[in-house]
From TrEMBL:
Cellular component terms per the entry's GO annotation: extracellular region
Keyword Metal-binding attributed: no
Protein family: Belongs to the plant self-incompatibility (S1) protein family.
Location in or out of the cell: Secreted
Main location: secreted
UniProt GO BP: rejection of self pollen
Organism classification: Eukaryota, Viridiplantae, Streptophyta, Embryophyta, Tracheophyta
Keywords annotated in UniProt: Secreted, Self-incompatibility, Signal
Organism: Helianthus annuus (Common sunflower)
InterPro entries xref list: Self-incomp_S1
Descriptive protein name: S-protein homolog
Keyword Methyltransferase carried by entry: no
Amino acid sequence: MYSYWTVYIYNEISDPISVHVQSGDDDLGNRTLALKENENWSFCEAITLKTLYYAHFYWNSKTTFFDVFDNDSSNRYCTPWKYKVNRRCVWLVREDGFYLGQDVTPFPIGWTKLHDW
């Protein structure tokens, strides 16, 4: 069964950040996010379960780059599979790093820190 996903990236930093999201097939371009703004996109996961999206993040003089969607992290940290239910991965960008969860919940409940700046 295929999964239909929506991935969100929320900025929780008072300064604007820039995000550039890509996959092997799609370039979603650059987006500047002010505090509390988000970037999101939806897709149907490949039958091979090899769907991969990655992103470059820029905040003042800091930059980083990592995968924002892959089969391993989506199954571990994002919404579990349920018949006919769309799944979500939600990234929270904070001054101390990057957190992944199933939904927007009050910090830190439901969030796992996966990356530093």
